[in-house]
Amino acid sequence: MVIAEPLEIAIQELSKLPGIGRKTALRLSLFILRQSDDDVSKLVEAISNLKTKVKFCRECFNLATEDLCPVCSDPNRDSKIFCVVEDINDVIAIEKTNEFKGLYHVLGGVLSPLEGIGPNEIRIKELLLRVEKLSPVEIILALNPSTEGEATSLYIANLMKNKNVKVTRIARGIPIGSDLEFVDEATVVRALEGRIQIK
């Protein structure tokens, strides 16, 4: 089937997005073709603004439109508690809960020697500088329970041993709504280790 060149280019570009295959890219391209010029202009402007107006917070590396993100610029946040996360998606997930009132530090990845990612490739140095500057009382490690996430958590915990700061990690265990019989052994072990007293 011969496809008009502009449509083929749009399909190729949309296919580069994560989770978007050629079929979905074709469907999206055809959807865009059917939209009004005004709607397409708004979409183009929104994508352009992502690149020109969004940057990293100079303190925590969360997304921001100013030098500081909304979390770092909020005087009501507790600057004595840091939550260390791998990526901005993790900040969004935690913020949705409205439970965490401290500050974040986005590492921008985790240690992965096989992929050539060491401490200098993620923002550990910047975390150490913030710890020196703000003297937090607690650092919560909210990294994924992968091998790389565990290695990164242990590395950071080791760096904090002489910093007079409590290092904790988020609890891991069995998700609400799941059946114990279908949960893998490692998750059951973590759930048992992270058990809490019922008051």
Could you describe the 3D structure shown?
There is one protein chain. With 199 residues, the chain is an alpha/beta fold. The chain has seven helices and six strands. It folds into two domains: 5-53, Helicase, Ruva Protein, domain 3; 63-193, Dna Topoisomerase Vi A Subunit, Chain: A, domain 2 (3-Layer(aba) Sandwich), CATH 3.40.1360.10. The protein has a four-stranded parallel beta sheet with strand order 4-3-5-6. The chain starts with a helix and ends in a 6-residue tail after the last helix.
Give the CATH topology of the largest domain: Dna Topoisomerase Vi A Subunit, Chain: A, domain 2
- The CATH architecture category of the largest domain equals 3-Layer(aba) Sandwich
Q: Helix amount, in percent?
A: 40-55%
| Strand arrangement, major sheet | 4-3-5-6
Mean pLDDT: 91
- Strand % is 5-15%
Broad structural category: alpha/beta
**What is the number of beta strands?**
6
Q: What is the CATH first-level class name of the largest domain?
A: Alpha Beta
N to C succession of SSEs: HHHEEEHEHEHEH
Radius of gyration equals 22 Å
Contiguous helical run count: 7
**Regions with little confidence, pLDDT below 50 for 5+ residues:** none
Intertermini distance: 67 Å
Q: Main beta sheet, described?
A: 4 strands, parallel
Count of domains: 2
Given the C-alpha coordinates, what overall shape results? Answer: globular
